[in-house]
Each structure stands twice: as structure tokens, then as C-alpha cells.
Amino acid sequence: MHLLKQLTQSSTTIPKKYLHLSKQEMEYNIRQIKNQLGTSLFIPGHHYQKDEVIQFADAVGDSLQLAQVSEKNSAATYIVFCGVHFMAETADILTTDEQIVLLPDMRAGCSMADMADIYQTKRAWEKLTQQFGDTILPLTYVNSTAAIKSFVGKNGGATVTSSNAHTMIKWAFTQKERILFLPDQHLGRNTAADIGIHLTEMAVWDPIHDELLFSGNPDKIKVILWKGHCSVHENFTLNNIEYVRKQYPNMKIIVHPECKKEVVDASDYNGSTKYIIETIEQTEPGTAWAIGTEMNLVQRLINNHPDKEIISLNPYMCPCLTMNRIDLPHLLWSLESIMEGTPNNQIIVPEDIAANARIALDRMLERA
Questions:
Q1: Number of compact structural domains in the chain
Q2: Spatial separation of the C-alpha atoms in residues 46 and 334, rounded to whole Å
Q3: Residue 215 has pLDDT above 50, yes or no
Q4: Sign of the CA dihedral with 215 first, then 219, 223, and 224 last
């Protein structure tokens, strides 16, 4: 189902009564419902969610990990996904038809995923295949819509995560001469450079103007990067790094590969959310870290590791606005809708889209 259609068929405005409940009342009611529903309820919580929501999560992780855990949890009838729309879509794709995936707030989204829609993608594919023929394999970051995942699966490609992007891009080059990487240009550029693709062999596709941005000989192009980005990670800058180097000379800098290439190159370490968490967990007490990723996660790492000095690489960074839509009122509203027999904001991916999207996911999981 198209997102716009889903929004019009779902009650997206939370009843006012939930906005007047105290924090204590909401937490009590959520605990009561969790106890009543038992194993028929499963609440996955993404790393970027607020602590007020994470405290009720049955599993905490990245988007694909949570979808896979949901798939394995056959006892759960209701999966209340505390994340964003594309994550809930992936959970619906991987779980059974009998399981119901709910998103507590339909406004919860990802600005990066919104930078590539299926209509733009089809137009781009038509123009690029006219120019390059059957030499391109599409890859899409899991931070993308089900429709994009389905398109990629239908055209021989696969999904990628920030943890396995290197593996998947290497695999893609065993299949075709070129790749189209959606929708995050920075993850694509950083990963391709890591495996030896020169920047002069990378072009950018501008979906707004439907044009290929490249100044050299197009026959030399190996990677076509979609002109999209993460609104949070793109805001970490070289100035942030220079400030930390000056003010905290003993501090290590670790960033997510969704950051710009110059920021990744200037940092000490870079890797997925899981990599960042594990690096901080495994490092010695007394070490100092500046972390370039979403603020809720950074604050959680600060709270969980008082034996280490941890700061945000950009202390003025705000949490991701779209990833932080879900709060206690929306979570309680979602759970009470289950108890009332009218589950609210169900995410349903049509079978024709889900089938090809699953192919794209499976191609990745086979190589994970």
C-alpha cells in the first residue's frame, strides 16, 4: 500500500486524552498491557529512539536486526515497531501474514528514505539503462521504502546495511560492470572508496533534475550514487573534528559512514551503529571518545559508560526529528488500540511488492 494511502486510511492524530496523562500514568498503563498481552506482543526498539520508549522494548538494535528478530518471534501476534516507517515495512515483509505490524506514529520516518521514491527510481533506471545498457546492478541501503527494495530485487540487485556494504558492493561487481547505489550517496561513496574505486569513477544521479552529474568520460563510471543523504549525519563537519582535535587532543573520533567522506577520512574510526556501540563497549575505562552519530544513541552511550569520557562530535546536534516521533503517548495509544480490538496504524506491504523486496533482502542475507 502506498504511504499516502496508508496515511489516509489510518488514524494519524492521537486522541487528546493521551496528551493529558502523566508520565507515571502512561508508564503504568503500558506495563499493565505488556503483562496482559504477554508473548503475543513484541516491541522492537531502534537505537535512535528515546529512552522513555526504549525502556519498554523487548529488543533493541538496528533496523534490519530488529526485523529479523521479529521474523523469528513466531509467538508474537502484534509487533509494535518503535522505529520509522521503512523499518516497520521490512518487519512486515519478513513476518507472516498472520502477524500484525504496527507503527505507533505514522509520522515517524527517515528523511534519507524520502529522498528516493519509486517514480524517480524508475525514471532514473530508464535513462541510465538507455545510456549504459545492461551493465548496471542496483543496490539499496535498507533505509529505503519497500517499493525501492522491490524494484532492486526485481532487477537483480540486493539491499545493503552499513555493516555489510563492503561485502555487497564487492558482490555487485561480480554481477555487473556498474552499480547504482540508493539512496545515500555518502555511504556509497565511502564504501566504494574503501574497496578501491576512485572518486573519478563515481558519478551522482540527481533525481530532482533527472540528470547524471559527471564531468569525465562516462565510460569510466563504475558507481552511480543517488543524490540523497542522512540529514543528521551530513551535519557533522571538518570544523567539528578540528575543534575536538584542538580541545581534546587525546580523544578518539568515531563516526558513522553516512557522514561526508572528508569527515570519515579525518576521523579515527568509522562504522555502523553496531560497530560504534561495540567499539565503545570494548574500549578500556578512562578512554575518551567523540561520536558522530544520532544524539539519542550518543547520550545513551554516555549514560551507560560513566567510566569513559564521551561527547557528541557536534554538541549542538539535535536528535533526528523524524526518527524521534514515537513517544510514550503514541506507544500507549498503539497498545490500547490492540486491547480494544482495533489495532491502529498497521503497516501492510502488498504481496507483489513484498515478494521482490524479500528477494533483495535474501540476496543480502545469504552473504551476511
A1: 3
A2: 17
A3: yes
A4: positive
CB atoms within 10 A of CB 330: 23
Cα→Cα distances 6→12, 228, 345, Å: 10, 24, 8
CATH at 291: 3.40.50.10800
Domain assignment of residue 55, yes or no: yes
Residue 7 inside a domain? The answer is: yes
d(CA 201, CA 26): 54
Please tell me whether residues 160 and 216 are part of one structural domain. yes
DSSP at 346:
B
Task: Report pLDDT digits (tens) over 66-123.
Answer: 888 988 999 999 999 999 999 999 999 999 999 999 999 999 888 899 999 999 999 9
| Mean model confidence pLDDT for the chain | 93
Q: Which domain holds residue 187?
A: 113-230
| Residue 337 identity | S
- Classify residue 124 as exposed, middle or buried by CB count within 10 Å of its CB (0-12, 13-18, 19+): buried
- What is the model's pLDDT at position 368? 67
Do 156 and 238 have their domain in common?
A: no
| Domain annotation covers residue 131 | yes
Global pTM reads: 0.91
Taking the C-alpha atoms of residue 339 and residue 333, their distance in angstroms, rounded to an integer, is: 10
